[in-house]
Please model this.
Amino acid sequence: MPKKPFHIYPGSVREVQSFGQRLRDARLRRRFSMETVCIRADISRPTLYKIEKGDPSVAFGHYLQVLRVLGLLGDLAQVAKEDELGRRLQDESLPQRKRAPRKTILQDKS
Model:
């Protein structure tokens, strides 16, 4: 059975490519060779090449393995941590409690 075509928005493609470049830069700053990262992440060299080029067809798990090898897996915890829009939407859907109007007590005791 042939694979379903994979479509991604152009803006998302740029983001993935930028992410791949940042991973490559992180690898080079650590002075890790492609071979070292491939062995430690248990991926092939062509897969690492695709990751560093920002190929969106590479499985997310492979990206995670490379992040782990580079010591950047903790950074993933920051993604969508503070979801302001989501919180506002959630708050809007909460039921609003309505109270009966307060009765004023007249003190006409003269």
